[in-house]
Amino acid sequence: MIQTPPAATATATSIGKYRWTICSLVFFATTVNYLDRAVISLLKPYLETEFHWNAGDYANIEIAFKLAYSLGMLGVGRIIDKLGTKMGYALSTFLWSLAAIGHALVSSTLGFSVARAFLGVTEAGNFPAAIKTTAEWFPQKERALATGIFNSGSNVGAIIAPLTVPWIAETWGWKWAFIITGALGFVWLVLWFMLYEVPARHAKLTKAEFEYIHSDVDDLAAASIETQPKVSWFKLLTFRQTWGFVLGKFLTDPVWWFYLFWLPDFLTKQYGLKGTDIALPVAMVYMLSSVGSIGGGWIPLNFIKHGMPAFKARKTSMLLIALCVFPIVFAQQLGQINMWLAVLVIGIAAAAHQAWSANIFTTVSDMFPKRAVASVTGIGGMAGGMGGILLSALVQKRMFVYYESIGQLDKAYFIMFWICGGAYLLAWVLMHFLAPTMKQIQLDDVPPAAAPTR
Question: Quick one: where is this thing mainly located (predicted)?
Fold first, then answer.
């Protein structure tokens, strides 16, 4: 039963206090999520020495993570839709924190593949839960900004990692890097249970803020989301909009995986950086990414404020963002002049990816009812993971091993940068073809819910 909050006037404090607190919690979770997955790329030199890895071994471990992440995405959205955001998000974070700490117990290459697979399947819950939380707590016009803010946590996690992980490894050993970073998830769990509840059951949420959150057309009817039946994958896959999101994620997610898992290796192999020397350039890339993530949410919001329809604002922003990625194809040429020019252009491309991510996630909550958001996000996340697996198996694993064996690894990176530069433009074209205009999905399996009484 929906509780009625105490009456309140629509002040600046009441309109926004709780939803931005929720956004901060999701930001924290996303930071921990990416910190945990980024640790291994920074420990690669230590692990290569101890376990005698080559590029193929590392690619196999990376593939194990991506495969498990993809399979996890296939089901985790359904689980979160069933359990609700509070319990679904908590369960996912608890399990991935255990998985992250578990890396410290591994003593073989096969063991790392198993540990990465467990981490992948459990970390898959973060984004479906985060997008569902955003859809529940923010009106449509603010969702891209809220998504950009929490999604910047992925960059903050990737910034914290190079600034801390090499130092921890040098000081206490690589195992403690996994233990310390993994334990942060339990800190988040305490805060989550203390502060989170869905708007309809939040005891301290004011009437003014509740009505603002549900100010979109027909959104009050969706406030009773938790009582409505869930939507089957088969039904969701009959919509062109689902396939637009799926293809967009399939083509662009692998680029981010490439930055996350191979950027330290690129800087090490191309410029001879070692140990803590790699911290600042890697952190710089992700600092720029944080700007892109928040800026990616601000761009469509600014268009909307100037009268552009929300969906057109989203699509226009994504085209501009896709164009910003393309200069990465010149990263190596610029790097021959100065390493920091390569770092800058890679950072701009990474920032553009995060801006793209903030908007592509929001297209789901634009086009689908809230009760289907986590499921659609999960399907798209699975597609992104499968794209990453294919890139690793068919391009990175074979290509990197081959060019490394003949002493021409720079050619492998040259090809990869061209793939990165073109992926977003292709994705935008396909998404525009499949969903050229805004069309809100109508699920006819249940009648519209009555607006809740406040």
Answer: membrane
CA distances from 231 to 235, 237, 270 (A): 7, 11, 49
What is the distance between the alpha carbons of residues 159 and 285, in angstroms, rounded to a whole number? 8
Task: Write out the DSSP string of 122-166.
Answer: HHTTHHHHHHHHHHHHS-HHHHHHHHHHHHHHHHHHHHHHHHHHH
Angle at 26 between CA 237 and CA 263, to 5 degrees: 80
Residue 315 lies in a domain: yes
Q: Give the C-alpha distances (Å, rounded to integers) separating 319 from 145, 312, 359.
A: 17, 11, 11
Domain total of the chain: 2
* Residue 241 structure tokens: 């909009």
The domain of 144 spans 16-210
CA nearest 368: which of 167, 143, 185?
Answer: 143
- Specify the pLDDT at position 229: 57
Clarify whether residues 193 and 255 are in a common domain. no
As a whole number of angstroms, the distance between CA 290 and CA 283 comes to 11
CATH number at residue 73: 1.20.1250.20
pLDDT on residue 224: 46
What's the distance, Cα to Cα, between the start and end of the chain in Å? 11
pLDDT at 114 (0 to 100):
94
The larger pLDDT score, comparing residue 205 to residue 246, is at 246
Q: Distance between CA atoms of 100 and 120, rounded to whole angstroms?
A: 10
What local confidence, expressed as pLDDT, does residue 437 receive?
73
Do the Cβ atoms of 301 and 142 come closer than 8 Å? Answer: yes
CA 304 to the chain's CA centroid: 24
3-state helix/strand/coil string of 16-50: CHHHHHHHHHHHHHHHHHHHHHHHHHHHHHHHHHH
Which amino acid is residue 34, in one-letter code? Y
Token pair belonging to 3: 């509780």
Residue 278 falls within a domain, yes or no?
Answer: yes
Residue 5 — pLDDT band, cuts 50, 70, 90? very low
Q: Which residue has the tokens 């164009």?
A: 323
What does the pLDDT look like over 331-345, one tens digit per residue?
Answer: 999 988 999 999 999
Chain center to CA of 396: 22
pLDDT reading at 228 higher than 60: no
